[in-house]
Each structure stands twice: as structure tokens, then as C-alpha cells.
Amino acid sequence: MMTNLFLSATLTCAMTVTATFATAETWDVSLPWGPSEYHVGNAERFAEAVEEATGGELSLKIHAGGALGVRPTETVRALEDGIVPMGETAAMMNVGDLPLLGLDGIPFLFDDESDVERYYQLIRPVWEEALETRNQKLLYSVPWPTQLIFTNRKIESLDDFEGLAVRTMDTNTSNLAESLGMLPLIMGSADVIPALATGKLDAVMTSGTTAVAQQLWEFLDYGYVTNHMVSFNLMSVNMDYWNELAPETQQTVLDLAATMEPEFWEVARQEHDMRMKQLEENGLEVSVPSPDMLAAMRDATASLEQNLVASTGADAERVLNAYHAED
């Protein structure tokens, strides 16, 4: 009798352990950024918080540097199809799949950080709805630091941009480059260094964070803090995977995302000054264009906002009208 009771208890315990392990989930998370970039650090912090808060019920395995084979321009499709359960990309790099994701790429839309925050509150619900149509849920979004144009020649007027082959990230930044007289080449971060090394590029549009990670001072001499746009990264999850989670686990993840997103924004704020210092220490000349030069750049790209609205429809117009109404 005692033996039967012991066996029964043992089997019950084993079944409980098996059930516990059966409900545990491990999701691969794809990021195209190199492991030293702060977006990867943010994702790693988020993964640690999720595992701790869910008691191991959900684990996130971070794969940086495009290790899972998902290019930044393919992330929306990869998440939609469940090729990866979760992933991060720059919104504007997926405009081919969702044009509304390009609404952060309007040139010279923001004067300061408060403008960026105000715009984000308007655009986030639109992005959430757009991503849901592609079978994914937005968890958090974090901007890149101030954008620069890095060149191999000194730029003192719009004429100096003429003919420069420049790395761009999407259609919007390509249109901006063309408006300034440059020759745009859309490419992901991983392709920039080979293109510079072979002389295919004369200039790069990117943040100081990426410039340091890629050691652009090895190829380019000047960095101009144009602040021509703000690029947002989106961390999203495939809805099929999401719906397999228990409701309480879903809420835990959402609460963590909401709590940690402002912390991740603070990391972004600190990045710019730190990276500018590193660029200068390595011999790259960093400067802010003159007010006249910035005004000329704004004038040259002024038509791009309306062109974008015309190509993306009523949601874009509604967001931009609301944003400009508060200017």
C-alpha cells in the first residue's frame, strides 16, 4: 500500500513538472544591429525582466547582428509569417510592406525632443493598428539618437552634396538625399563597411551610435549633425505566438514594455553626446551646419512631407494635421 502511494505521488509530481515545462516558452528575438549597439542592450534588459517577472514561463533569446538571417527590411514579413517569433527593426526600413511606417522619416519635422515625444504619442496607435493587419503586436519603440550625414568631403553649401553616393535606409531618406543632390543607395548596416571599403560610397546617413560601431572614421572625415529626421525602432511579436501565452503572462509583458520604454528612451538621450565625443577622439570632424545651410536643406526637402501624405493616405494626414496644430 505504501509503495503504491509512493508511486502515485511520484507520478503526480512528474506530471506536474512535465506540465510546467510544457507551458514554458522560449522565443528567438531577431535584431539586425550589432551587439555593441544600445538597442541590443535594451532588448537584453527586457529579456531578463520578462524571464524574471514570468518566473521563467517566457524566455527571450536575443540574436544580434542579423544572426537569424532576417534583414531589417524583411522584419515585418518575417514576423507576419512566424519565421521568427519576435524581432526589432527600424520602422522606416519596412515602408515597402507598410507605408505608414515611414511617417518618422519626414525631413526636418522636429525641432527638439519634446516634438519627438509629442509626435510619438500621435503615431504609435497608427503603427499598432497597421502592424496588427500584418499579424504582429507592437511591444515598445525607441528612437535612434540624432541623425548625421557623414562624408568624405567638407560640406559648406548644397552644391557640395552634388553627386555624392550616400547610404540611405529607405525610400524617404533616398528622396531626401536626391533633393539635396546626392545619389542614394539603400542598404542595411551590414552592407555599409564593404561598400565604403570598395569606394562604392562617399557618404553615410546614420546616427553617431552606428557610426562608432562601424568605425566610420576609417573611411570618412566629416560628420554633420543635421538632425534631418528621427528614426524609431519597433520591437514586435508575431500574434500567433502571442496568443499562445496565458492572459496574465501577456499582461506582464505589456506592463514591462510600458515601464521600460521610457528607460530605453533615456539610454538613447545619453548616446548622442557620448558617441560624438568618441567620433572626435578618433579624428572625425563633427560639426553642426550653419543656420543658413540648415535653412537651405529644409527648403530643398520641403515638398517631401506632402508627397508622403499623398502616398500613405488619411491616417498620415490626420496624424500630421494633429501634430502641426500644436506647433
TrEMBL record:
Keyword match Nucleotide-binding: no
Signal sequence, renumbered to the chain: 1-24
Subcellular location: Periplasm
Taxonomic superkingdom: Bacteria
UniProt keyword list: Periplasm, Signal
Protein name, as recorded: C4-dicarboxylate-binding periplasmic protein
Organism: Celeribacter indicus
Keyword Signal: yes
CDD domains hit by this protein: PBP2_TRAP_BpDctp6_7
GO cellular component term, pick one: periplasmic space
Entry-linked PANTHER family: PTHR33376, SIALIC ACID-BINDING PERIPLASMIC PROTEIN SIAP (PTHR33376:SF4)
Pfam families found in the cross-reference section: DctP (PF03480)
Swiss-Prot/TrEMBL GO biological process terms: transmembrane transport
